[in-house]
Amino acid sequence: MHTPSKRFIQLRSPGDLFETIVIRRTPWVGAVVVCEGEFDERVLKLVAERLDFMPNAPIAVTHAGGVDVVPRLAVALVALLKLIRKTRKIAFIVDAEDRRPLERVAEILNEARRRGLRIGGVEPVRDCSNVYKSKVDDVEVYIAVSGLPGLAQFRKWQMEDHALKLKILEGKLDPANLQDIEESKQVVTGEEALKELEEASLEHVKESYNHIACLLSTLHTA
User: Fold this and answer.
1) Contact 85, 137 (CB under 8 A)
2) Distance (Å, rounded) from C-alpha 168 to C-alpha 205?
């Protein structure tokens, strides 16, 4: 398998982008991926490892520290990418929480619109679940929304939903046991989710974390 260091350039924080790419003179990055939180970032890297994903150029990755930060952060990072001209692609991985996927996408893009940036149309990425693409000025923006509203009547939807689906596909969880559960974090912890992701069949990983696998494939080929 390829080593993680060849797949990803780790940013200490989103603000580390300028130092990493400009000051350290990184020649090119395939894309910048901003995950909502640290757990989402770990899932991204582990799915990439399971898929033996190798981009044409390393992907800079970091996490925002919360979903509410992402819209404002998106505007700043798009402006920075336009300035440094080392990539024209940025992606965000966010939880749906209590919103539908397109509502979450609209939150991010509307913040950019309020700041005077030109927003292109929003399209679903072909053959992907809840992955959308747009343009902010001349920067390609991809947004993958985590959460599975059809899995159970949860109060909010999040990355851990995909861990539950994986456990169901692996025969380790009966969906009937989710009837009185408000959110997936009551059933599976982050560490349990990562362990299951390491051990499950590759086909079940692809099906459960389709939005992550599809985002990685899109960034590789776009």
Assistant:
1) no
2) 11
Residue 29: exposure state from Cβ atoms within 10 A (0-12, 13-18, ≥19): buried
6 CB-near residues (< 8 Å, 6+ apart): 54, 58
Q: What is the pLDDT of residues 146-157, one digit of tens each?
A: 999 888 788 899
Whether residue 189 contacts residue 175, with contact meaning beta carbons closer than 8 Å, is answered with no
Q: Where are the domains of the chain?
A: 4-148+209-221
Fold entry, domain 4-148+209-221: Rossmann fold (3.40.50)
Return the closest-CA partner of residue 50 out of 219, 221, 200: 200
Buried b (16+ CB within 10 A) or exposed e, 144-170: bbbbbeebbebebbbbbbbbbbbbbbe
Reference 145, options 194, 91, 59, 211; nearest CA is 211
Please give the Cα distance from 34 to 14 (Å, whole number): 8
Say how far residue 168 (Cα) sits from the centre of its chain.
22
DSSP 8-state symbol, 18: H
* pLDDT tens digit sequence for 26-67: 556 778 899 999 999 999 999 999 999 988 888 889 888 877
- What does the radius of gyration of the chain's CA atoms come to, in whole angstroms? 17
Q: What is the pLDDT of residue 141?
A: 93
For residues 213 and 162, what is the distance between their CA atoms, to the nearest angstrom? Answer: 12
